Every structure is written in structure tokens, then in C-alpha cells.
Amino acid sequence: MLKYSEIAKGVYKITNVVNAKVYIGSSSRNIKERWNKHCSHLKLKQHSSQKMQNDYDKFGIEVFRFDVIQRMDNKSPEEILEKEQFYINLYKSYGKNGYNSSSIVNGGNIRNLHVAIYNKYGEFIELVPSCNLAVDKYNYTGILKNINYNKQHRIKLISKIGYAFVAIKDVENISNTIQVEEKDKRIIVLYSLMDDKVIRYIGSYKQYLIYYNNKYKTKLNASSKVKNMSILTNTNGYTYCEQNSIKDLYKHQGDLMCLCCFDSNGNFLSKDISKTFASIRYNLKSGSINSCSRANNNHEFKTKMRTYSGYIFKHYKLSKIPKRINVITGETLLS
What is the CATH number of the domain that holds 60? Predict the structure, then answer.
């Protein structure tokens, strides 16, 4: 067992004590840091292993046991990865038996995941063991870029050479068909998180670039401003995204925290993405909103529950905003 301040290198194993599934990983810097990242990604619902994420959502973190199976403090990163591959083979920690994305060690590098190739109709063609091999076979250097895009979107993008490349986490369950689209046929929209609706239809990808460059007076490639599946957004609550990817874009949209305002009787008035926009809406100093919401979020309603104007501010998840609250305790009222 590692001590609290001890730094170790080597190979580790995460075991689900309920169903015996395992994950094999390694670190050439700090093993405990890798475990902390696993825990953080699971809590944020962003873990790379969907199967581990599903089991975490079902059982919680308590069912996962973390063990260092071989310390390699004086070994090179290449030797550590080689030993990780040995244990992946030993425990068969991929497919139905475990949580690893592939039977091939990848050290967190998407280049070494299996790649499924689909034609322009979305029909499966073949499976290639890694991105590098796919690049060599199809003589196309843009495969990694296509893989990264398709990793983040439900509808897959057809590359310039007429194929869609998809990184595969579970080699035993590959889809024979997928939804595909061509880049020029994507529709970019301006979408509001708070109102859950499209504010403006921008048009095709090329039209979006023209629109963005004209609006913000910049010559930068605006493609980087199109958001992916991240729940993060601009501070004003609006984001540019693809119309057919809105469902993918915010899979956990209901978990997004927003600042809610209630009147002196506890009736819901409005929601905003931040105190900055709430202060504009109600013509209040952001400092007074901040102190009010902080006190109420800490359940200190009796001592400091409202602003001088009588408004009550409190943070809620977007999916759990009450219509009324108790102005004394802050509890949700049914009517």
C-alpha cells in the first residue's frame, strides 16, 4: 500500500468487486495521480471507459478497488508500457471482461486504439488495429483529426477521402452501420443553454466562418469556436454548435448549475448562467448577488437570505429548479 506522500511508477489495476471487471493502467510519473484522475473523470461523467462510467453511476466509487500490481520506479516509460500490455493480456481486461478500451496498450494515446472504417453510406468496411496503421493503409494524414471529431459526435463526419474513421473502445461490439454526414452539409446554430432552444440558424460551415469573422472581426479559423460535447459554455449561456449534435452536445445538460432568482414570497422569477447576467437583469451589484447566493447555497437563510431589493438568489441544477421555495429555510415547496 502506498503511503500518502509516496510517489511510485508502474502498473496498477482497478477492480470492480461486484462484477469482477478490471481496468489495467500504468504511469511513468505518479500512479496515485492516475487514480485521482479516474475518480475525477467518473464524478464528472467524462470517463473514457463508458462501461466503467455506467458501473460507477450504478454502484458508486465504493465498489472500485485500486491496487498497484507492479512498481517500476527505475524503469523507462517504454518498459512500463510493455509491462502494462503484459497485464492487459494476463487479465484480459478488455471486451466483456473489463474496462480497457482496447486489447492493445495505448498509454492514453488515441492513436493506438482500434479504428473502424465506414464508407460514405455509413456501412462498416473493416477494423484496423491502430490509427497509425490506418494512416499507412489509406495514405491519408487527416485520419486522427477525423477520429477526434467522430469521438465527440453521434453523427460521424465523412473525411475528404470518402470514409469515416471511428475509434473503437469495445472491439466485440462494433456497429455495422452508423449515421454519417458530409462537412459542407452541417448546419451551425447559435444555441441557448438556459432556454434550451436555437436562437439563430447560421448556415453551413463555410457560412459560419464568414459570419463569425464578420461578427468578431477576426481572421482566426473559427472552427475552434464550435463546441463539442463539453458541458462548458460561454459565460452568456450561448454556444455555437451543430444542429444535429445538440442532443450529444449536452448529454448532462440537466446537471448544469444556474443562478435562480425568487421574489420575497419565494416564487421563481428567472434563471441565468452567471451573476453577471443576473445583475444586468435586475440592475443589482454583482457583489450583493454573490453574497446572497453564497449564503443561501450554504443554507444560511435565516441570517442572510436576500438582497436589499428583496430578491432571493440560489443555485440549482437546470433539471431541478423549483417553482417556489420556503423563504425561511430555502426548501422546495410543492405548490
Answer: 3.40.1440.10
Residue 297, classed as helix, strand or coil, is: helix
Residues 35, 13 contacting (CB under 8 angstroms): no
Residues 270 and 314 in one domain: yes
Rounded to whole angstroms, the Cα distance separating 158 from 166 reads 10
Q: What is the pLDDT along the chain (335 residues), one digit of tens a residue?
A: 555 556 889 999 999 999 999 999 998 888 888 888 899 889 888 887 888 999 999 999 999 999 999 999 988 888 888 898 889 889 988 877 789 877 777 645 666 678 999 999 999 999 998 888 898 899 998 898 899 888 877 889 899 899 999 988 667 778 999 999 887 777 888 888 777 788 888 888 778 878 877 776 655 444 444 444 343 445 566 777 777 777 665 554 556 778 899 998 899 998 887 788 888 888 888 888 888 888 888 766 666 677 878 899 988 887 788 999 988 877 888 75
Does 296 reside within a domain? yes
Length of the chain as a residue count: 335
> What's the domain count of the chain?
4
Give the DSSP letter of residue 194.
T
Quote the cell numbers at residue 192: 441557448
* Statement to judge: residues 70 and 138 lie in one domain: no
Give a yes or no: residue 102 inside a domain.
no
Residue 140 lies in a domain: yes
- The grid coordinates listed for 228 are 463539442
CA angle 32, 64, 15 (to 5 degrees): 90
Cell of 215: 461578427
User: Is 4 within 8 Å of 41 (Cβ atoms)?
Assistant: no
What residues contact 334, with CB distance under 8 A and at least 6 apart?
Answer: none
Q: Torsion over CA of 174, 179, 182 and 184, rounded to 10 degrees? A: -140
What is the residue range of 16's domain?
10-97
Q: Which three cell numbers stand for residue 324?
A: 417556489
Verify that 170 and 192 share a domain, yes or no: no
Q: Give the chain's radius of gyration (CA, Å).
A: 24
| 104 in a structural domain | no
